[in-house]
User: Which sequence fits this backbone?
């Protein structure tokens, strides 16, 4: 730190300004005179994408050879943070060997809507699952001495108008969903850098946003890393520095003078520039100190193995009525262009240059000879290819159709127009299933699609954009050498029209209004009890898991307590496999409008047939809390909650009830005559005041006539107390009216005492 401050002390204002933008497209500025080296920043996040300054025949940048790992959509579906950690560590190793110091990833944005073109690059619709997976990836990467640049901070949930759109998101949705994922990441993995996104957040560009960067990220979460802009996301160098963005990328030496001019004109304080430079130099010197003394070649085979194991754990068996695993002695047809040319990665900045991708058609040779029919080639329906596929399907015992989204449908830079597979895929599946009642569909997509032929096929395996080893993983899962254990990290809705943001995605007039608020993904479908195609957390296995002995270590708890949960899970089937145990907190009745259910913990457990293990989870106040916009803090409402254990949000095996007793009064809580009774009763003085006055209240209710209209029958004491409770959403003013013997002065005195006077 002292060394860095000394260097800053020697820098001219011009040098400081130049340090605040890249030295080129992929490097920071080097200042030889002061011994400041340049460092490399390179995409990520599904492998290393280091440009080598040459273009291919199509004009696209060529990058160094690297391993292509499963996309984030897959990694999160593993529900195994160890998978993410291993991928992070492996990419870290490649970065070191290629002399790259910062990896631009992972992408941690919440999947607000299934059509977002970059959903394949994001983890989940749930901030816990996304946050835990991203944090594990970052820990794996940074343990190697390579900095992560987690992106895109924040509320960057669509590609349409991505550089101009204003995400109009309410404070509560920001705190509970869109920023919450970054909060978890920052606290659990301390990423060395974070990328401020293209979009505006409630009108203010993310790169200039004091509220999200300075207040939330820095002040509240204590973040000490470097904030870097997305490429070309800075519109004013002065406002970026003021907002808290330290480094403008890519190289922007043409605008460095804006910083110098602003300091000289007195509109920007030099201290803020120094602060930005300090964060940048911290990153530069840390990353520089981890360079390898000499470059070594990348170990592609080790990376391939990691990519393979990751995909094995991530693919999701969506449907299986017993056809899978396949018997290799049967006559099998592989149908569809993607059997030979799988879409193993998404397009855009995360695209990796690998020479080691393996297709299912190649991998299946290890099992048996299959007949192959292409089925489609290009975007159009090809009747001849379909006819050929039907012929192959007719003579096979089992037909496996490979389908998916192409790069012209799902990609960075644009959103999908609809939730359908290309018609050439749907037509092919329908035609094959019509002649072969043993049809399996393998899907390569980065987000949900409709499956109109679902009833006509016996099994569906979602392999996502599964990285370079996707073919081997697919075959090993199809033939049962491996047991599927991925679970969906996002809901598959029945129809696009059912989705929570349907009415406001992608928005209009420069804004996307997040009117669905905190009801994102399953939080919406569960609260509304809507039918869906596949629920959040869904994933099948070739074995069976049973849960028992759900225990909570207490029946009641307060805000300072932890709740210990234990449950046993047993493999009662015949094959080894991994159970994905999900713990949800379910809210039955609560005075606050909130999602009925939220994922609060998960664990993946490998079990041999007959084996049983006990799992333990710990819950804290935050797991029961919502963001109280009025007081600007998380609060846990009193009441009863259910702890649910299951293998998807809808497949709940066990549940137990727990009561939250009291909650902490927000520090900035002030009371007056319009304070709500429910708040007054949370204060010990308020509670005492009213607990000694229950007779007076019931008396007051009777005397006021409010309780006396029941055909002359006098309500019982219990009925009157129930009625009094119904008044608790009213302010003190109203309840005071039902206190016949208490004076206004006594109420005023209570207010003063609660305010500490
Ligand atoms: C993308 C980032 C990426 C950067 C550099 C931007 O267009 O949004 O995710 O890291 O380009 O390639």
Assistant:
């Amino acid at each position: 730190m002292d060394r860095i401050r000394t260097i800053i002390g020697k820098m001219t204002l011009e040098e400081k300004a130049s340090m605040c933008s890249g030295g080129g497209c992929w490097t920071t500025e080097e200042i030889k005179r002061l011994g400041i080296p340049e460092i490399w920043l390179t995409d990520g996040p599904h492998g290393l994408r280091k440009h080598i300054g040459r273009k291919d025949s199509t004009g696209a940048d060529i990058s160094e050879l690297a391993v292509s790992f499963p996309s984030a959509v897959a990694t999160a579906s593993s529900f195994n943070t160890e998978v993410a950690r291993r991928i992070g560590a492996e990419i870290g190793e490649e970065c070191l060997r290629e002399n790259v110091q910062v990896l631009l990833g992972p992408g941690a944005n919440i999947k607000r809507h299934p059509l977002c073109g970059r959903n394949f690059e994001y983890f989940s619709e749930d901030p816990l699952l996304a946050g835990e997976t991203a944090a594990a990836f970052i820990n794996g990467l940074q343990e190697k001495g390579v900095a992560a640049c987690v992106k895109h901070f924040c509320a960057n949930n669509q590609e349409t108008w991505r550089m101009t759109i204003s995400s109009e998101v309410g404070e509560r949705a920001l705190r509970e969903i869109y920023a919450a994922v970054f909060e978890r990441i920052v606290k659990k993995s301390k990423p060395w850098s974070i990328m401020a996104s293209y979009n505006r957040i409630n009108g203010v560009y993310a790169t200039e946003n004091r509220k999200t960067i300075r207040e939330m990220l820095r002040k509240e979460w204590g973040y000490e890393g470097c904030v870097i802009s997305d490429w070309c996301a800075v519109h004013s160098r002065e406002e970026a520095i003021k907002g808290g963005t330290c480094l403008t990328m890519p190289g922007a030496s043409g605008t460095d003078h804006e910083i110098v001019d602003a300091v000289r004109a007195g509109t920007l304080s030099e201290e803020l520039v120094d602060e930005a430079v300090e964060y940048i130099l911290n990153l530069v010197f840390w990353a520089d100190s981890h360079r390898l003394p000499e470059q070594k070649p990348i170990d592609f085979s080790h990376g391939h193995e990691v990519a393979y194991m990751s995909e094995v754990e991530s693919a999701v068996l969506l449907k299986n009525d017993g056809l899978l695993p396949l018997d290799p002695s049967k006559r099998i047809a592989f149908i569809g262009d993607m059997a030979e040319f799988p879409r193993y990665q998404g397009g855009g900045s995360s695209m990796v240059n690998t020479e080691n991708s393996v297709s299912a058609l190649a991998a299946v040779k290890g099992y048996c000879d299959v007949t192959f029919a292409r089925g489609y080639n290009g975007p159009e329906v090809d009747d001849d290819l379909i006819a050929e596929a039907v012929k192959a399907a007719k003579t096979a015992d089992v037909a496996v159709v490979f389908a998916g989204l192409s790069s012209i449908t799902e990609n960075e830079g644009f959103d999908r127009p609809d939730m359908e597979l290309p018609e050439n895929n749907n037509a092919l599946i329908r035609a094959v299933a019509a002649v072969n009642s043993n049809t399996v569909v393998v899907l390569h997509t980065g987000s949900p699609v409709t499956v109109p032929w679902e009833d006509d096929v016996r099994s569906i395996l979602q392999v996502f954009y599964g990285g370079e080893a996707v073919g081997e993983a697919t075959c090993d899962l199809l033939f049962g050498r491996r047991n599927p254990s991925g679970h969906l990290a996002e809901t598959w809705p029945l129809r696009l029209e059912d989705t929570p943001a349907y009415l406001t995605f992608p928005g209009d007039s420069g804004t996307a209004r997040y009117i669905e608020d905190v009801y994102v993904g399953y939080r919406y479908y569960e609260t509304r009890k809507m039918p869906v195609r596949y629920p959040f957390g869904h994933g099948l296995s070739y074995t069976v898991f049973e849960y028992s002995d759900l225990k909570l270590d207490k029946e009641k708890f307060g805000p300072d307590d932890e709740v210990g949960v234990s449950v046993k899970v047993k493999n009662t089937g015949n094959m080894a496999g991994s159970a994905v145990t999900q713990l949800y907190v379910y809210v039955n009745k609560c005075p606050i409008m909130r999602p009925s259910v939220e994922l609060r913990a998960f664990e993946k457990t490998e079990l041999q047939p007959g084996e049983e293990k006990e799992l333990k989870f710990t819950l804290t106040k935050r797991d029961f809390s919502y963001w109280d916009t009025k007081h600007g803090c998380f609060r846990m409402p009193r009441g009863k909650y259910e702890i649910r254990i299951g293998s998807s949000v809808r497949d709940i095996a066990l549940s137990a009830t727990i009561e939250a007793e009291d909650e902490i009064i927000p520090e900035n809580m002030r009371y007056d005559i319009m304070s709500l009774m429910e708040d007054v009763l949370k204060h010990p003085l308020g509670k005492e005041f009213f607990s000694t006055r229950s007779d007076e209240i019931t008396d007051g209710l009777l005397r006021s006539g409010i309780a006396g209209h029941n055909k002359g029958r006098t309500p019982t004491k219990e009925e009157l107390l129930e009625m009094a409770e119904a008044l608790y959403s009213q302010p003190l003013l109203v309840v005071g009216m039902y206190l016949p013997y208490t004076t206004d002065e006594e109420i005023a005195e209570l207010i003063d005492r609660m305010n500490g006077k």
